[in-house]
Amino acid sequence: MTLLDLARGPALEWALVIFIAGILWRLLGVLLLTHPVDFSAPRTSFAKLQGTRTVFSRAWPSAEFIVRTRYQTVMAYVFHIGMFVVVAGFVPHIEFITGLTGLSWPGLPNFVATLLGIAAVLALVAMLVRRLTDQRKCCVSTWDDYFSWFATAAPLVTGLMAFYHLGPRYETLLAMHILSIDLLLVWFPFGKLMHAFWAVLSRAQTGAAYYRKGVRI
Amino acid sequence: MPVFPTFEQVYQGFAEQIGKLPGVAPRVEMPADQRVKRAVKVLVDETHADEAVWLESCVHCGQCVDACHFYESTQDSKYAPLRKIRLYQRVYRQEVGPFRWLYKLVGRPVTVEDLEELQELVYDSCTECGRCTMICPMGIDIASLVHHCRTALVAAGMAPPEMAAVTFEQKQMRTVFGASPDVLRSLVQKILDEYGEEIPIDKDKAEVLVLTSAVDIVMNGNGLLATARVMNHLGVDWTLRTDAYESANFGLLAGDMDLMVELADNIAKSAERVGAKVVIVAECGHAYSALRWNPHVHGKELPFEILYMSEFLGRQVQAGKLRLEPLNRTVTFHDPCKIGRRGGAFDEPRAVLAAMNAELVEMPANREVNWCCGGGAGVFLLNRATELRDKAFKIKLGQVDATGADGVVVSCASCRLNFEAGRFKNRWDKQVDSLVELVADHLKDGEAGQPAAVAGGEQ
């Protein structure tokens, strides 16, 4: 079995199993905890529904805070949007998913996908630099922050390297790229990458708690 | 000739009382491992799904510092809000979280030194104002998590001595700073003798149960006088009760939840006994949280509504029952954090100021995103936190100055004490007024008489 066979064979299969099982375990382990009843009289009966507004309103800082947070917010969006568009819009990715599931959709021109990929990498680097040079020492960085950064950056970097044949031979580069995705999938349920789910849940529940009191956030 | 002290004198008297608190604080002796065990148990017991989601959600972006007055005024990263929840996160991961078996193997156990370090973070340098929640991209309710940390420290016998002293007194006496029923009765009599203002006390039945507070009872007689004037002017069928008069809930402030519930239940029972349709909470911010938004108080089933003083006054204005003389001044309004951002009563105090034709200029950061004054959640009681509090207040001072207003109207005794302290220490030229006292001074003569409809349901 070659490295590439391993990467896109058993390694990917196990990575997907751990990814799905791990996410379910972590989500259920949290959401199945107790939910005590709040007996106070709410100002609205629709707080939970109204709270979902906060999932979207919190996606951009309020006017009061925008000056202090815009750099970080913009970098984060450049990275997230770039990454998602590359994952879903890059033709080799679509072909891979077609091979697995039969689904397909039109892809982006390669130069657009690679530009977005480069932008995503640059944004990630910018955020890492910000964390490392944090003069205010406010971020309280842990090894999870750095390892999650690595697990996220590696597929982007190795993907660009594979596409442009930079370094070892193509099969090795492709294997490295897929192995880095395997690592991302395995790590995802255990670290801060789970913020993909927590962002929605946390905003919604805080929104509901505030709406209950008549405060729109 | 005024009978009661000015609020500057009230602040001076209060500061002196606070200075004596550490000397009378009960000491809780306990082995260190017992303290840790109790603190951890409380955090575990109080962690439900909501807390767990918030504890899982922090991505260490550090944006919360840009919303926190304690960080902003010191630039000390120690006061970053996300640091306040790190110990709780550790406990959660090791004891409650879905991978606790893994974290128990690799994580550091909690020590008493961790709890000692936590004390300053969750008492001295947090007013539970919730402003950090407004900036957090994940929407984490840090203030609620800080509250749980306080309850953990109380269980470990590690609340600050001032909090321990006041909590101890309130456990025994149901009130604080010596504001006993006898002192209350004396004040009521004095108000009658000096001002001819009758305050009904211990009526068997009344539509409205009014709560007062120790600050008004032992020092700021003008507060109770103003309350009486307004209630009598409106023709409200009201009463004070010597079995339930104290708004302040040091159970909530310190983190002693048994005491919090006991005090709140006592007020609810008294209100039910008198057949009250409304309970009015005096100008005391956290008291509103302790009663109105207390998850244990069966608010939906109780036969009465709980209104904050400014909420009640605003509703009377909006119903056309309260007409006021013009104020003829430019003012700004400081929303107490527990009434505005964490209480939802923004519009009512503004309606009162509009009824006084006050030229209201909002502060640059107002309503949901206003800056905390720095004195709430019991921080004003802590001698050790004085310098920190004074620095934090300067932000609020700047906010008021930026409006160009003559003064600021506040509707919370804790905020008012902090404003008064700031006014004194900074030789600040702005006037600081209490909303209820301002209303009492601007009642329109001849407009009283018709009983006010006090029970109006939620707006």
Word description of this protein:
The complex is a heterodimer of chains A (217) and B (459). Chain A is mainly alpha-helical and 217 residues long. Chain A has a single domain (3-26, 64-194), classed as Fumarate Reductase Cytochrome B subunit (Up-down Bundle). Chain A is 71% helix and 0% strand. Chain A has helices at 3-8, 10-31, 47-57, 66-89, 91-101, 110-132, 143-163, 170-187, 195-212. In chain A, helix 3 crosses helix 9 (195-212) and helix 4 (66-89) runs antiparallel to helix 6 (110-132). The radius of gyration of chain A is 20 Å and the shape is globular. Chain A starts with a helix and ends in a 5-residue tail after the last helix. The model of chain A has no long low-confidence stretch (mean pLDDT 95). Chain B has 459 residues and is α/β, with parallel strands linked by helices. Chain B has 3 domains: 7-19 and 175-318, Rossmann fold (3-Layer(aba) Sandwich), CATH 3.40.50; 32-157, Fumarate Reductase Iron-sulfur Protein, Chain B, domain 2 (Orthogonal Bundle), CATH 1.10.1060; 330-441, Rossmann fold. Helices cover 51% and strands 6% of the residues of chain B. In chain B, helix 19 links the parallel strand 5 and strand 6 (359-360). In chain B, helix 2 packs antiparallel against helix 10 (142-155) and helix 18 crosses helix 19. Classes of the chains: A mainly alpha (217), B alpha/beta (459). Chains A and B meet through helix 2, helix 4 and helix 9 of A and helix 3 and helix 9 of B.
